């Protein structure tokens, strides 16, 4: 999940669940997951701790990729390396034929972090986005499924580098990922500040679209004055106006405003202005900031609107140029597959553990979309906070922590889930 510096932190369901099918699923789950995950839990926690203590930035995941490669090889998977840098692919072929081939993606890189937000501290690599947990869960799922080859089809494990730079998924694909593997569906997860033991997702856009905009002025502009103007006037574009700063953790999960409420405030928003960077050169002064927008149809007009506002202000005479410096698409979950997936998870784990989100998560994004351009896919958000333990899993913050029980839940939920998907017979046009 790519987040900004000041991040406030990331059904037409198939009702075919005859009671007999439900029973057999529950039984399979007991046999497949809940017992075995206890057997490997300590091992997985040790792997996670090791990855956590040895964080590697985007594009530098050499050590992590070797650990992943060797672990998968020891499980008996066919392993391919070198996709998009340090990307690793594990291929697990079960005995079920004619079922769907599914891919599971986990990202491996750490991010730069200024600990405790000390202004003069040097940023260091740290797993402040939970990708060490994602990698560990991916290995755990591979372990579980490698033990039940008789009852699964083909599962591809994609261990991706460089998510934080938004390059890893794209590079793996450009390096021939989907020539090597041909999944019918792809899934992945990101840890999330909801309570441990819960899993969530939504059809369509999961996060907001993200753009970085740059305004270049003549050097004689009054920087402080313009910054104040920008923060106060451009905010007029914000469609959800609230003096109570709604983009905080307590609102994300609030029953009235949060992501799980159909009337959530996160359904229709535009955020800008909290992260303006000023670069004063010899001849020019530039202002950069990122905005988040839920509506893709507005993306092209916002820059024009901002430019228009600035041109009509006293700062207009200094404006030389307005441009995008970064455009990032967002995760878009395949609607049918999302409803099917959430329904299957609810059948196994209960409605209280599996929730559908209505709003788009602010201040976060993910490069999982590049796989979704090629293959129908769903990204899940896995709860990793634990209020009783004082753990808040808000990525890209100095207080970011996860309850390590999240590893157990992630491995349990998605081992069974992937097994189930590979037992879905392919239907023409499906
Ligand atoms: Zn992340």
Labels describing this entry:
eight-stranded mixed sheet; 430 residues; Aminopeptidase; alpha+beta
Q: Helices and strands in order, then pairings?
A:
Blueprint: E1 2-3, H1 19-53, H2 62-75, E2 78-83, E3 87-93, E4 102-107, E5 111-113, E6 124-126, H3 131-146, E7 154-160, H4 168-174, H5 177-180, E8 185-195, E9 199-201, E10 204-205, E11 209-218, H6 223-233, H7 249-252, E12 270-272, E13 277-280, E14 284-293, H8 299-311, E15 319-328, E16 332-333, H9 335-349, E17 354-356, E18 364-365, H10 369-372, E19 377-385, H11 405-422
Zinc ion is lined by residues 1, 129, 131, 163, 190, 395.
Descriptive notes:
The protein has 430 residues and is an alpha+beta fold. It has two domains: 270 residues, Zn peptidases (Aminopeptidase); 120 residues, Alpha-Beta Plaits (2-Layer Sandwich), CATH 3.30.70.360. Helix content is 33%, strand content 24%. The chain contains eleven helices and 19 strands. The strands form five sheets. An eight-stranded mixed β-sheet has the order 2-3-7-4-8-19-9-17. Strand 13 and strand 14 form a beta hairpin. Helix 3 packs across helix 11. It starts with a strand and ends in an 8-residue tail after the last helix. Bound molecules: zinc ion. The site of zinc ion (ZN) has 6 residues, from loops.
């Amino acid at each position: 999940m790519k987040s900004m510096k000041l991040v406030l932190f990331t059904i037409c369901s198939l009702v075919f669940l005859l009671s007999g099918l439900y029973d057999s699923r529950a039984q399979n789950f007991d046999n497949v997951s809940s017992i075995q995950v206890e057997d490997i839990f300590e091992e997985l926690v040790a792997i996670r701790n090791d990855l956590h203590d040895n964080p590697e930035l985007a594009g530098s995941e050499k050590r992590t990729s070797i650990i992943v490669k060797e672990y998968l090889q020891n499980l008996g998977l066919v392993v391919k390396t070198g996709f998009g840098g340090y990307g690793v692919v594990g291929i697990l072929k079960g005995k079920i034929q004619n079922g769907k081939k599914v891919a599971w993606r986990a990202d491996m890189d750490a991010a730069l972090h200024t600990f405790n937000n000390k202004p003069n501290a040097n940023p260091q690599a740290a797993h402040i986005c939970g990708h060490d947990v994602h990698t560990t869960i991916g290995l755990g799922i591979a372990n579980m499924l490698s033990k039940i080859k008789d009852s699964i089809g083909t599962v591809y494990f994609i261990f991706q580098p460089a998510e934080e730079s938004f390059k890893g998924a794209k590079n793996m694909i450009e390096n021939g990922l989907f020539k090597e593997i041909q999944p019918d569906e792809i899934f992945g997860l990101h840890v999330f500040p909801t309570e441990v033991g819960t899993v969530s997702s939504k059809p369509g856009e999961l996060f907001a679209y993200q753009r970085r905009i740059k305004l270049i002025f003549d050097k004689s502009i009054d920087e402080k004055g313009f910054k104040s103007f920008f923060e106060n006037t451009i905010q007029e574009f914000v469609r959800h106006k609230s003096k109570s700063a709604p983009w905080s953790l307590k609102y994300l999960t609030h029953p009235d405003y949060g992501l799980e409420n159909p009337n959530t405030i996160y359904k229709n928003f535009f955020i800008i202005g909290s992260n303006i960077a000023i670069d004063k050169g010899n001849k020019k002064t530039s202002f950069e900031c990122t905005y988040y927008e839920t509506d893709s149809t507005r993306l092209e007009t916002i820059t024009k609107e901002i430019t228009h506002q600035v041109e009509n202000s006293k700062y207009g005479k200094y404006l030389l140029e307005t441009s995008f410096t970064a455009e990032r698409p967002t995760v878009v979950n395949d609607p049918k597959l999302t409803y099917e997936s959430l329904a299957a998870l609810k059948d196994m784990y209960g409605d209280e553990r599996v929730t559908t989100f209505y709003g788009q998560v602010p201040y976060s994004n993910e490069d999982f979309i590049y796989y979704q351009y090629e293959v129908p896919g769903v990204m899940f958000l896995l709860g990793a906070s634990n209020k009783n333990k004082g753990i808040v899993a808000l990525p890209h913050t100095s207080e970011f922590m996860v309850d390590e029980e999240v590893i157990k839940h992630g491995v349990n939920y998605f081992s069974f889930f992937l097994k189930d998907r590979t037992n879905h017979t392919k239907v023409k046009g499906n």
